[in-house]
Amino acid sequence: MCSICAIADFKSNENLNPGVLTFMGKTMKHRGPDESGLFLGRNVIMHHNRLSVVDIRGGKQPMSAERDGKKYTIIYNGEIYNAPQLRAEMAELGAEFVTKCDTEAVLWSYIIWGEDCVNRLNGIFAFAIYDESRNRLFMARDRFGVKPFFYAYAGSSLLIASEIKAILAHPAIKPKVDKSGLWQLLFLSPVTFNSTTVFRDIYELAPGERAVFDYRGFKKEKYWSLEAKPFEDSREEAIYKTKELLKDAVSRQLVSDVPLCEFLSGGLDSSAIAAIASKEKREKGEKTDTYSFEYEGNKENFKSSLFQPQGDDAYAEGAAQYLDTNHTVLTMSSYMLSKLLCDAVDARDFPGQADIDSSLLYYCRRVKNSHTVALSGECSDEIFGGYPWFYRPEMTERDFFPWIHNPYARINLFKEELAAPNEGYSYICEKYRAEKSEYSVLDSDSLTMKNARIATNLSVRYFMTSLLERKDRMSMASGVEVRVPFADHRIAEYVYNVPWEIKFEGNVEKALLRNAMEDFLPSYIIHRKKSPYPKSHNPEYEKNVTEMLNTELARKNSLFCEIIDQGKVRAMLEHESQTWFGQLMAKPQLIAWLVQMAYWLEKYNIVLV
Asked: What pLDDT digit, counting tens, does each position of 195-246 carry?
């Protein structure tokens, strides 16, 4: 994994400043600590930081290739899991490979197939290719947005980068946040609308989009989305094909020239990935390395709830023993959990998910001591129907995103004249209604199937994207590449059309996946109730973040104190509050998020417009 950034200008090359570009690239050195590269072209300059994973010696970037006297140069961040098959096919079509890395496979796929190359790629990617003969820049992002791609304009120049901080490092870009950005922060964070960011004039190439920039300007289009099709397979065929697709996805993602491990919580999703991986490795005489995560004081303070019925520790160790892996339990203190909240903001470039972010950042730093690549179980719930809004239509029939339990919980803590909560709520509702009308359904779909399709698209395009963003920023801030086998478009495309009665058989969420994994896992994991990413139950954590927030509230002349309603915040601190976001975000997380918000406003010199 790596970072990419570039400046392109097809009207005036006076704006192509290598010093500015290098400074932008240095802000993302954490994504590619192994080496950096620079390309200076007539209308495009490119920078790349590399984390070496495959073909460590041969995969340097920016990378160029020539065919028929025409030159092409790429900067690329990602992994292509069908690269060997593509290379064999393209070699027969005249491609001349000089490395073993997938960067070259992506470059040649564009040389041979042009813009349609993206349809042939199976993997996670964000890349830009300077096509010198046509004097244009071609760009693309993977189907689910596993890899990031941001852009902005500086006069006639286009700026692109893997992270927002690099865009903000350009002297022409200012950290402005308008009402739309503020409402996304206070209502939806960490979710943002597709193609936007919380910053005015900084945009995102959405998942499944490609774009071209030349002297005529910037033009982008969608090249992939979930498509509703009639389903003709039986229940048994659906189970078998799902199992085979998942096995193939995991197998493809085990390729690495550096140490690779698996994250193992003991839940169905991570256990499924680890089970398939460990079986394949055993057949090669190798043993799988796995990690699980825990917090100091959790065993003594754990309280069962509807959303988190039991802790992960016993299940993780049981799964590791069953699969015979080299297992390590990483434990985090409440002090470190709160201390890294601000580091997590630096990694994400805006306040995200409080300790859900900071804990993953810490664990990835620990994993980096021994491993550079990890496989993780994200994206299963969004594809197989693991959330309550899949089978509770009243949640999607609301005018608001279904995972937000109390939309006003955060925004009501800010001064009303600034936040305009009612206006913001109407704005979000309008966006949500428009979003629901875009999805692909069939006239023959039952009401439950139609709702499942809507829930799938909402989850994939928003909820899942935010989780993948978190995974990318926290892992890459640590120099670790995390792969997500469930985010294989072939799995999503197939499962999208499996009847809901099969996916929710016996009124059990993710029944299709459970049935597909029966040969790989013990029954106590197959039938384990969904349990989300673990949080700290140690009261010491709430005490720590409360002290941090009180320190911010006592400061003079800070933007945070100008916009926060201190009376409401102090009332919240004195009383118990209900869950405000998703399954894990209760009072301690709300306090921690406010700490992140205060830090972000000052560190990023935010200007509200």
From this structure: 999 999 999 999 999 999 999 999 999 999 999 999 999 999 999 999 999 9
Residue type, 133: S
Q: Which residues pair with 4 in a beta bridge?
A: 48
Could you give the count of Cα atoms lying within 13 Å of 330 in the half-sphere of its Cβ? 22
- Active-site option among 2, 117, 261, 342: 2
Residue 98 CA to residue 44 CA, distance in Å, equals 24
- Residue 225 token pair: 């989305």
Contact 482, 256 (CB under 8 A): no
CA distance 306 to 398: 22
Q: Are the C-beta atoms of 8 and 79 separated by less than 8 Å?
A: no
- Amino acid 568 reads K
d(CA 151, CA 167): 7
> In the numeric block, which tokens belong to residue 533?
């990413």
Number of other residues whose CB lies within 10 A of the CB of residue 392: 13
Tokens of 534: 């673990």
Which stretch of DSSP H or E encloses residue 294?
A: strand 289-295
Contacts of 320 (CB under 8 A, 6+ apart): 264, 274, 290, 292, 327
Residues 339, 345, 346: CA angle, nearest 5 degrees: 100
Could you tell me how many residues make up the chain? 609
Q: Please name the residue that has the structure tokens 């199976």.
A: 122
Strand partners, 209: 222
What dihedral angle (degrees, nearest 10) is formed by the CA atoms of 215, 220, 223, 227? -160
Q: Could you read off the pLDDT of 468-511 as tens digits, one per residue?
A: 999 999 999 999 999 999 999 999 999 999 999 999 999 999 99
Is the CB of residue 51 less than 8 Å from the CB of residue 4? no
**What are the phi and psi torsion angles at 396 (to 5°)?**
-85, -20
| Cβ proximity of 182 and 171 under 8 Å | no
Name 1's bridge partners. none
- Residue 560 and residue 547: Cα distance in Å, rounded? 16
What is the Cα Rg of the chain in Å? 24
Q: Are strands 123-131 and 70-80 parallel, antiparallel or unpaired?
A: antiparallel
- CA distances in angstroms from 436 to 152, 445, 457, 498, 499, listed in the order given: 28, 16, 8, 20, 20
> By C-alpha distance, which of 344, 400, 378 is closest to 465?
378
Please give the model's pTM, rounded to 2 decimal places. 0.95
Q: Is there a contact between 293 and 332 (Cβ–Cβ < 8 Å)?
A: yes
Q: Which two tokens stand for residue 263?
A: 């994250």
Identity of the residue numbered 158: L
Q: Is 141 helix (H, G, I), strand (E, B) or coil?
A: strand
Furthest CA-CA distance within the chain: 72
Cα-based angle 214, 215, 218 (whole degrees, multiple of 5): 50
DSSP 14-28: GG--HHHHHHHHHTT
Specify whether 5 is catalytic.
no
What span, in angstroms and rounded, lies between the C-alpha atoms of 353 and 588? Answer: 11
